[in-house]
Specification:
CATH superfamily: Spore Coat Polysaccharide Biosynthesis Protein SpsA, Chain A
Largest sheet: 8 strands, mixed
Subcellular location: Cell membrane
CATH class: Alpha Beta
InterPro entries: Glyco_trans_2-like, Nucleotide-diphossugar_trans, Trfase_2_rSAM/seldom_assoc
GO molecular function, one term: glycosyltransferase activity
Number of helices: 10
Main location: membrane
GO cellular component, one term: plasma membrane
CATH topology: Spore Coat Polysaccharide Biosynthesis Protein SpsA, Chain A
Number of domains: 1
Shape: globular
Strand order of the largest sheet: 3-2-1-4-7-6-8-5
Order of helices and strands: EHEHEHEEHEHEHHEHHH
Structural class: alpha/beta
CATH architecture: Alpha-Beta Complex
């Protein structure tokens, strides 16, 4: 299977090398994996660290503040039949490509994501992890740090990521579900807890939940985008 993995970055020098190394280590020998990094103007050494490790690096500082633009740009550059969108601080599990292939071979499945998991343990993180797992099992809209995937053809059919500066993954899932089912690979993808560590853990969780509730109710959440971006632009 030919898979293009698209990673949007902005000041990700602390994580990006590990993320890419984990991709190479955990892919099966049967798959052809293309890695595309779309950088939105990093001020650290993100680009320098990945240049020799990935297939393509695309740099454009005008993409800052709109993650969906970086993801769509990566999709335009992709040569693989399958697209997998990966956050820069998130590790794919061993044989991830086999799981993706198996998921997409199921009748009626047009895309999917991996089980959500944190890189740190502890009661609080376990609680947040399980709340999130219950949440996306109920409404079938996955988080961006779950490694959402679909075929290039289906991605083009839905018009790519919509023009939404926040919750872009949920909007994409909503569009994909109009064409078919989304599979959940019940093997955890491991994402960093850094957002919670940099802020008050309960405050961050409650804010995320509040935005998700308003999205679910169909309310306008764009007003939260600028504040969210400012909080996370330094590799958060």
């Amino acid at each position: 299977m030919n898979i293009s993995i698209i990673i949007p970055t902005l000041n990700e020098a602390n994580y990006i090398s590990q993320t890419i190394d984990r991709i190479r280590a955990n892919q099966s020998k049967k798959s052809d994996i293309e890695i595309i990094v779309v950088d939105a103007g990093s001020r650290d050494d993100t680009v320098g660290l990945v240049t020799q490790k990935v297939n393509q690096v695309y740099e454009d500082s005008s993409l800052a503040g709109a993650k969906y633009k970086s993801l769509n740009q990566g999709a335009k550059l992709a040569k693989g039949a399958v697209l997998l969108f990966l956050d820069a601080d998130t590790f794919l599990p061993p044989n991830f490509d086999k799981y993706v292939e198996e998921a997409l071979s199921q009748h009626g499945v047009v895309g999917g994501a991996f089980e959500f998991g944190f890189d740190r343990k502890g009661i609080i993180y376990r609680m947040i992890q399980w709340v999130n797992r219950i949440r996306y099992r109920v409404d079938k809209r996955y988080f961006g740090d779950q490694g959402i995937f679909c075929s290039q053809k289906v991605f083009e059919q839905v018009g790519g990521y919509p023009n939404q500066p926040i919750m872009e993954a949920a909007y994409l899932c909503k569009a994909l579900r109009k064409l078919g089912q989304l599979a959940l690979i019940k093997v955890p993808i491991i994402t960093s807890t850094r957002r919670f560590e940099q802020g008050n853990i309960f405050s961050v969780f409650l804010k995320d939940t509040w935005i998700w509730i308003q999205f679910t109710l169909g309310l306008n959440i764009k007003r939260y985008a600028l504040a969210y971006w400012k909080e996370n632009e330094n590799g958060g």
